[in-house]
Amino acid sequence: MVEMDRIKFKNDKYKKVRGGYSRLLDISCEHCQKHLFFYQKDGPGLLKRMYLDRIIDSRINNSTNLVCPNCNKLLAVAMIYEKENRPALRLFVGAITKKIIKN
Fold first, then answer.
1. Quick one: which of 30, 29, 27 has its CA closest to 40?
2. Residue 1: pLDDT above 50?
3. What is the CATH number of domain 20-101?
4. 16 Cβ neighbours under 8 A, 6+ residues apart
């Protein structure tokens, strides 16, 4: 498990393009409520995809689809976001729950 005070946000061109602010999300499986990982969300808007370089403390395989290790439910599919040529996970609607973590 990651200690919250040790998490350092990535500050790169992608963060700057999205408005320069970030928040930390606790990502869990909607079906079984199992914690999956923490994610750095940059900028405003809905969470439609998750970039692999923003996933923190993950034990998932970065090159395949996201499947819950507890209930084996498919949560997202691997993709390359073409505008930025970045590997990402495209989320299925209602597949995950997210909670903003206060630093």
1. 27
2. no
3. 2.20.25
4. none
User: Rounded distance, CA 39 to CA 10, Å?
Assistant: 11
- In the chain, domain spans: 20-101
The answer to whether residue 92 scores a pLDDT higher than 70 is: yes
Which is more confidently placed, 5 or 78?
78
Report which secondary-structure segment, H or E, holds 16.
Answer: helix 13-17
Residues 6+ apart with CB under 8 A from 64: 78
Which DSSP category does 102 fall into?
Answer: P
Q: Which residue has the tokens 């390359």?
A: 80
* Amino acid making up residue 32: C
> What is the pLDDT confidence band of residue 19, given thresholds at 50, 70 and 90?
low
